[in-house]
UniProtKB/TrEMBL annotation:
This is Protein FAR1-RELATED SEQUENCE 1-like. Residues 1-31 are annotated as: Disordered. Pfam families: FAR1. Residues 51-140 form the FAR1 domain. Coiled coil: none annotated. The gene is LOC110758827. It comes from the Eukaryota.
Amino acid sequence: MENGRPRPWLDLLSNDPKPTGAPETSAERDLNAVAEPYVGMEFDSEDAAKDFYSEYARHVGFIMRIDQCRRSDVDKRILSRRLSCNKQGRYVKPRDQVRPVRRPRPSTREGCKAMMLVKVNKSGKWVVTRVVKDHTHPLIVSSGISMDERDMKIEQLTMELEREDQLCELYHGLLLTLLDNVEEQTELISMKVSGIVNDVREFETEVERLPQNELDDN
């Protein structure tokens, strides 16, 4: 325990208990240098929170998954974000879908509950409001504290999907704005056409009321 906070993940570095007084390994020094998430922790932006949790995940021994978010009903900006372990949830086999027969692969989902939830406050800071540190699976911490290519690719693709999601939200908003403008212009044109039709009808009515001799003179 350090500074009153338990650090159970240090036990993952070795299956054998560490002798009392033995010097720290380089991996332990790196782990000690990484802060643990806690409720009330603040970040300047959502990306800063993601970077922190991704770095924390690498050092502890799991892969971060950029999970669900909640958006504003007004401007669609993100108000909260959940960052989870990549083994979060359970694999659900799709039903009634015709797909090519493939060799089944083991699912990476193990129902892990580990996560960090951050919300933006009125001052624009992103604050940690909930943290779950316990995992339902073994954590893998190597002496080099590095990720293999597959895990790095998963994280890169996850962040890329998040950016694509943000772009889709932006395009969706622009499309709605365009459709609103088209609808307004259509209504305006319709009103103008209706006004012209009414003017023509009034003119025809006035012409019909004129005496026949005036029409002949014209």
